[in-house]
Amino acid sequence: MGDWLIALLLGIVEGLTEFIPVSSTGHLLLLGHFLGFESTGKTFEVVIQLGALLAVITVYLRRLFELATRWPHDRQARHFLIGLLVAFLPAMVIGVFMYDTIKNIFFETPAIICVSLIIGGFVLLWLDRRPMTPVHLDAAKYPMRMYLIIGVVQCLAMVPGVSRSGATIAGALLLGADKRSAAEFSFFLALPTMGAAVAYDLFQNRAVLDFSDFGLIAVGFIAATVTAIVTVKAVLAFVTRHGFGVFAWWRIAVGSAGLIGLWLTGSF
Fold first, then answer.
1. Mind giving me the DSSP string for 171-197?
2. Hey, where are the domains in the chain?
3. Which residue from 218, 237, 246, 255 has the least number of CB within 10 angstroms?
4. pTM of structure
5. Are the C-beta atoms of 261 and 29 separated by less than 8 Å?
6. pLDDT tens-digit series, residues 123-168
């Protein structure tokens, strides 16, 4: 498979998986492993995540503008912005201290990704089938303690395969959120979390970054942006009606297929 087609495929996969609880990083790393694709300093894999961020900004542009203009005089807007900051801080602190472990061990061990996908799938199945009566229906009105706990749970996603959106959604559901607001808060929390993660990763790899394949990066970035816009718009309606069961089974299937592939190729 040519590099241009791989770049397009990886961009589409990033856009489709970033905001659903299946782990976009896990999918990208496994695909890259089996297709033999790896950019210098992970430049490609890092930059195309910005396409997914651009998608959230595009879909929620009006809401973000309202928050930016209303927070000085609107108590609810301030509450939500502070809540996002509180939820973001645990990942920022732990991410800095565990950066080397995450990049050099977790990211380089496909078996860990596969096992994480499978375990996360069963957890998601349990949550989806667990009888719950939601008490928090608006992500902008969650209690501050709830924002903090969701932020702590999000840190589990530093292990590729766990899924950032999956961890935050699971945390919110366990704390009494409904499925729609849990997914929506995951979208918003992606902005500071992913933005900071990409910026920090680019800084750490500044000495080895290679933008010589700018065309490949551009293809992946555009593909990620377009598919993520479609995904973000569709996910809220889908999970409200159908829950997260289909994503759970997909995780289990991909993780199992990955383990089989690693065994067949002697890559354990």
1. HHHHTTB-HHHHHHHHHHHHHHHHHHH
2. 3-265
3. 237
4. 0.87
5. no
6. 999 988 888 889 999 999 999 999 999 999 999 988 888 988 889 9
